[in-house]
User: What shape does this take?
Amino acid sequence: MGKRDPRIDAYIAKSQEFARPILKHLRAVVHEACPDVEETIKWGFPHFQYRGMLCAMAAFKAHCTFGFWKGRRVVAAAGRGAEKAMGQFGRITRIADLPPRKVIAGYVKTAMKLNDQGVKARVRPRPKPKPPVRVPADLAAALKKSAKARASFEGFPPSHRREYVEWITGAKRQETRARRVATAVAWMAEGKSYNWRYAR
Assistant: This one.
């Protein structure tokens, strides 16, 4: 027999009014298709487990989401794959946005079969580390003239140094580039990163 988690009842009750029937519907379909499913809360929203992670649902201010842990192996093969929101079904605002009950149940059974077979979820490969930042000669020369700017630049993490270098080297005209070097050194002398204007 499956296991229901009272925290999911509370989650549904606290959700927006439009979301409640969607969440109840999804919960019912998952339990019908997988009688041994166990409910839990992970990362703040409802998850369903069967020999490992199976699927999850969530409610937000204006939409709900639903998705399978082994998403593309379960759903994309059947021709769906909305990537507009978390999960594989896009932004769900009403039950009619979902596939028919039988189709969802079929996806649940596919996900169960994958878990029975011990198939692992695909893990995204880690991005390759970027090469060290190469400081252009004009910026290096300007930094030599300002100890404060040089200290800031050297103290920045690689991503912050790269932002300045890419901004300067992205200039199309020499005058623009010279202006950017001067601005960058002035900002760095004040300890500011390139995106300081957007920091809260």
In short: The chain has a mean pLDDT of 89. The radius of gyration is 26 Å.
